[in-house]
Design a protein that fits this description.
This protein is of the alpha/beta class. The chain contains nine helices and 14 strands. The chain has an eight-stranded mixed β-sheet, sandwiched between helices. The protein has a two-stranded antiparallel sheet with strand order 2-3.
Length: 254
Amino acid sequence: MKPVLLAGETFHITSLAAKGYEVGASSRYSNGAERYLAAMDRAGILVTQIGGERCEAEFPTSLAALSAYSVVVLSDVGALSLLYTPETRAGRRSVNRLELLRQWVEAGGSLMMAGGYTSFQGMDGMALFHGTPVEACLPVECLPGPDGLEMPEGFDPVLASPDHPVLDGITGPIPYVLGLNRVVPHEPSIAETLIHGSHHGATLPLLSVRTYGAGRTLAWMTDIGPHWLSREFLDWLGYDRLITNMVRWLAREI
């Protein structure tokens, strides 16, 4: 398998501490994909990560550059981080990388979007994938407004298509999650929901897959790490199998 490209999952946290008139500032850098990267490494899958803050300058800008990867994973990185380029910053025409990804998938590439505050449409509606070429090839439709749903009481996943290769070796119960992005599933003739769950009487998709043109896409509506993935989920023996199955299915290895 060629390397997997993971875009996103990094963030800076800046805080202020006031002690009377004295105010101190501190900053730290975090990578929310550490658990995911560890699972990939144990499976022998090479992952190249481009943090969200680096996507503008470093995310591929051609089909030839994308062809170096077996799968592209967008995780907690918004549309603007891919649409902005050094050229557009300078006031010049550039490539639309959302349309580039759609063309790549249509020609046989494989794309996954994982959930988070800046995935799908986003917690505050700031991810902005609704109405984009990336949404056009996903197995789900994004809501037009904010879609993040916090579930402190827990959301219990249910296997909807246990015989699908992505769920090979996965048996219930799957540990609960603490949040997800609300989306609209496509008709069964277009896409397939593999895992869903119930929330206030509504069935919400958690994992969906689709064939688009000659390519494949997968949508995982919750995190690949904390905090939407509960501690029980991160410690679950099935985590590694499920996460690597997603990539292997996209890469046509299973």
